[in-house]
Each structure stands twice: as C-alpha cells, then as structure tokens.
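so the lab meeting is tmrw and i was supposed to have these ready like two days ago... anyway. pasting both below. for each one the top line is the aa sequence and the line under it is the structure tokens. i havent really looked at them closely yet so no promises
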Amino acid sequence: MTTVEAAVHRGKGGREGHQFTTRISNELFEEREVQFQDRKVTGAQLAEGVGAYPSEEWVILRQLETFELEAIRPTELVDLADGPLVFVIKGSQTFRFTVDGRSLEWPLEDLTGLEIKTLVGKEDDDVDLILEREDQPDKVVDDDDTVRIGKEGLERFKIRPAKGALIISVDGEPFEAPRRIMTPNQIIVEAAQKDPSTHHLARITKKGTVSYQGKGDEPIRLRRGMKFQVISTGPTPVSDPLHPAPAQLFKAGLSALGYEPQSLPSSPDHITFSYVVETGKYRGTTVTLGLVVPSDFPMTPPSGRYVSPSIHPINTSGEHPRGAVHKEQARVFDAGTGLDWQYWSRPFPNWPASKRTVATYMSRIWKLWDSQ
C-alpha cells in the first residue's frame, strides 16, 4: 500500500462564493476539503489540489453513479457538479476487477474486503463479499481479508446478504460474536475470559494496530474476520511466562498481513516466518526471516532481521547491503530451528516519528530487499 495521499471527491461540488469545494481523502478514506475556482477542472488539477506532482505519475479515477470506476487523463475535464468520486493515487497502471458485473480498476495490487465494499457503497451494509472462482468453490472474503487483484486474470466478486455466524478472531482463536455491537471490555471478558481492569483490546489490521486502551466501554460495530488481540496492561503474569504481550502483538500484526509467524519454544520473543521477496535482485526468492521483539514494543522496534539461509558473507563492518552482517547474534535461531542463520544489523531510522506498527516495520523490510 502506498504511503502517499489519494484524493477523493465525494458528493456534488458545492459553490462557496466563487469557489467550488471538493472533499478530499487519502487512500484510507480519511477526508478533507479542497477548493477550486472553476466548476470544471482537469485530472491534473485534481491531482495537484492534493500535492500530487507531477500528475503523470498518478492514476486518476472517477466513480460513476453505478459505482464503476474509469480512468481520467491529466488533460481531461471533470465537472465537479456531476457528483462522482474521484481518486488520485500514485501509480503507473491499474488492475481491473468486477463487483456484481460492475467494472472497476484500481492502481494498488491489494484490497481488503471492506475496501472493495466501500468502493461499491456497501461498507455499512450487512452483506458478504464473495470471490467467484472457476475451479474451486466461491470464497467469502471477510472485511479484513486481503485480495490480490494485481495478479494475472480478472477477479470477479459479488455481493449477497450476510448469512451464518459473525466470526471474529481474538488472540488468534475464532470467536462467534453473540452481538454485532460489542465493547472492548465485553470482548475481553466473553472471548478471552480475562479481566478488563488488567487488560486492554487492540485491533490488528494490515494498516497497523488500533488500540482501545482507555476506551473499554466504547461500542465497536463488528464485522466478519476482524482480528483482535488482548494486551496485558501490567507485568506479564508468572503463570504465563512464555507469552509476553509485545511478541503476541507483533505476531498478530504479521498474521493480519498474511504471514504465519512462529515463536521459538525456548525464546518466545524470537519469532520466525516465511517471506517471499517481492522486489530487488532476490525477487521471487523464499527465505525465512527472524525477529526479536523488544519487551517495550511498539515503543522500540526490532533492531534488525535474521535471515535464513545465509545470503551474504559474514562482514561485521560496513553498511547495507553487504555490511553489518553477523553470525554470533544468530546462534539462538540456529539452535532453535536447526537452520543456518545470519543477522543483518539494520536499525529502523526515526522509528518514534513513524506510525510504529508492524505494517510500518514490514515496509522497511521491503525497502531493504529492494536495495540489495
């Protein structure tokens, strides 16, 4: 998911004096307002209205009354009074998919179930999103599930009234919610059988962690597939010494991103997971990554990554990509997995100024592979 802003114009353009106000949002659907002097503007002006320069490096899409999406050229005029949504997202291509026969295109390769519902105006409806498949049974896509629309072929979806139990995940275990509206404290008690006075709830999404600490009585509208983690607000109980909350939180964040993390039996803060390199000279290579989660995460991130099998010669001096590669620090992973590991010292730059989420940390790992 790109970190730059996307522009969205919602509803009919409104005249304020001699200006037309357009509602603007980023790719997370967080809105703000932008004003234009004319009712008709070009795609480039829409992009520039949110600081998207040069406009040729951005994809501009308009949503029709049918919720279909079509591309707008930078020189093409758009009438703000027509009331379509307009998206401006950094990218050079779009990926096509359909929902109930409507044709849509999007410049990001991955979308969640909720994002797809939002694009067709069904984000607040009690409906299921179904991925149609030719050689397998159709699949229900939960709101937090990620679908890769950027792969070969055309993904086809359909919307149907929701049926079946409302299943969410709490501490990695499925939980059938008895009500659509529940508070964090109710989830802590009913799903995890823990005490809200010593625990708080966090929701794990692919965009980061949403904490409900201090908000235990605020209602949450539950959706199928939501992922929650119950976090201790005090010291780790003596009866549960092998499961420190920060490692649980990091693993839950990796799971939300589609990975399958495992803890070393003797060192639960040491986690491993399979990783397919998506960019750079090692693109397509499957490796196993290891991380040591600090006891104060998310205040402090893992200091670097452990890689198996060994990629570079050991070189304790120098810089990325071939320097600061160590062996001694990897001995715990060697012993815990029986594999050959090496440690790449790659501190996260300016972590306090970042969102301090698992998704943010994994974005850094992507960039490190891209620069190999």
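ok protien two:
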Amino acid sequence: MSRYQEIDLSKIHFTSIQDRFSKVDTNSFAKVSDNIIDSMPDILKGAEFKEFINRCRLARDSDKTFIIGLGGHIIKCGLAPLLIKLMEEGIVNCFAVNGSVTIHDYELAFFGKTSEDVSKGLADGTFGMADETINTINRIIIRASEEKLGYGEALGKAILEQAPNADISLLAQAYRYNIPVTVHIALGTDINHQSPYADGKAIGDCSLRDFRIFCEQVKNLNAGGVFINMGSAVLIPEVFLKALTIARNVYGTVQDFTTAVFDMNLQYRELENIVRRPLENGGKGYYFIGYHEIMIPLLVQELLR
C-alpha cells in the first residue's frame, strides 16, 4: 500500500453531453461540392476563410475600397494575371508594393523571364547586375522625379508603352486602368541600387510621393473596405501602419474595415500591424498560411465568383 492518500474517484459528479457545449458537430462537417469553398468544413480556418470571403464579397458588392499589398514572390510565382483580372472587374482600387515587385514585373514584361540564381550570382559577384534591368529602371525613375511622378506610375507608363509583354505586367495594366500602384522603397534592398546610375534623391522623391498617394487611398477603407497583404513580411506592414496613422490624423475616423494576411508562415509584423493593431477599435483581421501559388488563386477565384 502507498503511504500517500489517493483521491476518491467515486465522488466524481458526471454531466450529460446533451447539456455540454461542443465546438464541433456534424452540421459543420465538410461537404462534397463542385465549389471548394462550399466543401470546406465550418471549423477553424475553414470557417474563418468562409467568413473572410463573405466580408470581401460584401465590400465588392457595396463598391467599398479594396487595397492589396504585395511582396515580390507573388509576381515571380506567375500570379499577376489573376490580380490584373481583379482590376478588370473593378474590384481592386490600389496596390502597395515593395521594390522587388517592380524588378520582377519589369523583367517579365520586357524579357519574359525573371528570378535569377542568387547563390550562384552572389558567389561570383554577378547577382543583380543585369544592365537592361537596373540601369533602365534607374533612368525611368530619374526622369519620373523630374516630372513629379510616382515610382509605380512612371514604371507602369513605361512598361505599357514599350514592353512586349505589357499585358502580363501588374504595373502596366494598373496604369492602363488608372489604378495606383504605390512603390515603397528601402534603399539598398533592390538590385537597381547596385549601380552608379542609382539616384537616391530621385528614388526617394518618387517613393515618398507614392507613400502620400497610398495614405490618401487608405483613408477610403473606412466603413467596410478591405486591405489584404500578400507576402510582404516587413515593409508593407510597416508602411500600412504609418499610412493608417496619417489617414486618421488628417481625416478622423478610419475604422470598421477588414484586413487579411496571406503568407507562407507566421510573421510578427504582419500579425501585429495588419491583423491586430489597426482593428482594436472595430473591424476584423484574418491570417491565412499557405503557399502563394495555391492560396492566391483560391482567393481570387472566390472574389470573382
């Protein structure tokens, strides 16, 4: 016999499952359907994704502002045609992108290829040294600063007028549809900064102009708009937070909108700056993890449906 006293389980009080709250029941199970959203279970992320899609459709049908933030991986995974379709259908009002988006978009539009072998190029010092890309972009931005254009505006115009594959260029088609693509540059992060022709004054001038354009767009999220960040872990989340601050400072209330992050893993700034902090006074944020080349087509297909 143990020297220690055991609890007497005969004194247990049982309950009935009929009276107990259960988070899962058969009504929430997955269903066989021709539509993938309808086939998702109303459980966990399946339920969240359905809810998010419904909020997006409500914004779409009510002509609310729809802004998408992008990292370069979205473009180099071949997803630009889907985003262009959202512009054609009048769903998206603005894109906010980092510098890598412009690099990949430019190369695909002019040369039909992008995304070099970084490790190989880094080993011999040739990474990012393609003359046709870096020096032409620099020339466009220097001229854009002289003409007081935005970074995305200038590149979109040049691609639309000159590139053989302008039809697959997010920047070109946005310029065609008069939709701003604001480009937010961190000096030293893009390959066109690796050139003696890079003009920091011109780059900063055009990118700062884009920031002010973006702030004006963010104020329109009030009362039902949607902001989605796709694959920018740091830059766009930081820019969005500052733009929202300015919009609220200048215009007052910018509340009750929907945000979402689509990325391949959980990132601190995306979670805090897009899903949590902006919505403490109203609205709702979502975070969906998955491969862009799978999740973005799924999202776009439902927005178009």
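from a quick look at the 2nd one: The chain has one domain: 40-304. The two ends are 70 Å apart (CA to CA). will dig more after coffe
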